[in-house]
Amino acid sequence: MFEGFTLLGAGIAHFMTPEGLFNLAWASLLGVVIGALPGLTATMGVALLVTLTYKMPPDQAILCLMALYVGAIYGGSRSAILLAIPGTPASAATTLDGFPLARAGKAGMAMGIATTSSALGTLVGIAFLSLIAPLLAEFALRFGSYEFFWLALFGVLISGRLTAIDDPLKGYVAGLLGLLVAMIGMEGLHAYQRFTFGISSLGSGVDLIPAMVGAFGFAEILGVMKDRITPKLVTSDDRVLPRLSDLTRYWRTTIRSGIIGTIAGIIPGVGEDIGSWASYAAARRKSKEADQFGKGSVEGLVAAETGNSAVIPGAMIPTLTLALPGSASAAVLIAAMFIHGIRPGPMLMQENPQFLYQIVGILLLSTIAITIYGLSLTKLLVRVLLVPREKLMPVVYVLCVVGSFAITQRMFDVYVMVAFGLIGFVLRQMRYPMAPLVLGIILGDLLDVNLRRGLLISDGDVTPFFTRPISAVLFAVILITVLMSMPAINRGVANVFKRFSPNGAN
Amino acid sequence: MSEVTPEEELVERRMNRADLLTGIVFTVLGLAIAYWSWVMPRLEVRGIHPATVPGLVPGLLGAALAGCGIVLAWRAGAQGRDARFTEFFALFNQPETGRFAIVVTLALIYALVLVGLIPFWLATALFVFSFIFIFETWASPTPKPLARAALWALVQAVIVAGLVTVVFEDGFLVRLP
What we know:
A: two-stranded antiparallel ribbon, B: mainly alpha
């Protein structure tokens, strides 16, 4: 117990250097700006920053990336409140009550509440991160090839299921496409080159960073530029600093939303947007003023902003302990960690226990940074929102090109970025979620190698995949997830429950 | 349940046709991948365990993709009795498609042709200038006067090209294309 506190103190102190504080300050501010600008998302920002920070020492590079991530998820609330356009998908639920509040002349108050709620949400998530991650890492030490195979499949499927609520089939297709992309290039067991079609650059496979820069950067530029509407800004000069009573009145909502957000973060590939929607829906169900939701309810705003920010620390739990990305941005973070020689997974707590507490330290410091920026820089951020997209998007595209070229210095990676941008745009237009695709790319190798290694150990026998206790549980969860997403089975199960419930028997 | 507007119905009918087409594409792609995986060398000469052939996982994934594609296409076919392909293809005649085509053309010319052919700063300046200029004049619902748009686009193009080159090469020590 005390060892944990000592490590946590060391984690925070590690970054209390002039260099650390300087990096924290610029990266979190850049994150807030990126988040606030519609069309620039957290994932894209993190992916682009990986290329800029890859010559930095590992701890400082991760500090910059995490600070930008936290800043961007918070920054999205600014445009949600003032423009009614979520700056990142994470703030979609914030728009529902944030914008009506701004129109009622309470823009300052809405921005203040969004800031404090984001900070509190991150704090709730951090508490769970430092409690759960060490336990999960210890538990995960029992995992073998069989379990890791199911875990990789589970990650892709659950992400596909939950990011495409209306049409899980499209989520699964996105996941399968991602897994298939990961099959390109040299495989990990016999060093055989698959699906390269004679293109030597494909031999090492498709790198995640250019693919992400394309799918989240270029695709987003195409989406933003396509539409002809120009948004209108609504702002007011009321007080930004929230009163203490505003914060304490909704403490139940804050804690509930923080827990829901953390859980959404822990579920692989389910990100801030789902955390925010789920918290919002739960708050509306429990609220005494449910009729005010969507018309400018402070409680709704609290729920949405607490929910999306709590996802970040939540997402770091599987990311650090299982190398299973908790969100799309966390997938980029995993790629960045590998670039810097940090190997997330069950062994991380054995090899590098202080790293987890450094992440906790970074999250705490970033929370302080966004609170300071959020409550003080209102005028500057309003000015940022006024930058026209015609002027902004070409610059972003230049950064996408430079960003995908920079790491390996191959033009091939620029082509990968362009291809993923176009494919990502088309898939998005047809309502395919991007998170399962990303998870597929990052988990494909884990799934492939562990399935075949498992079969090798068992001499071709598949029974251990179903009889080992943890494997059996994972398999059962996967089976239920897939079966329940089939409309016919879902209806059948619902009918059975109705028949046996005392109220529904008629 | 909220009312469904005619506009939303049109979007759904178009989505239905898109699903039918992509369902067929995914089926064909999945089957092709499964076939390539089947004919992939099984490395018998190296004496590997037959359960670990390189084509195993891609083959299974290809088959799963084909399965999903069949379900997607079948579902779209069953649900979309009043959906028409003419409505779907009308999508390509909209002003949004024109704007999309401009962005793609500029982006592709910049990334695939200009970068690498001429110095990076010049390519970037040209790209930024044409992007801003086109979207503030011809492609804008409220076009600006040509001369003013050109001047400001030029100023921003020079600043961006200069800044990106200096910041990346000297600040972050990244080599540029």
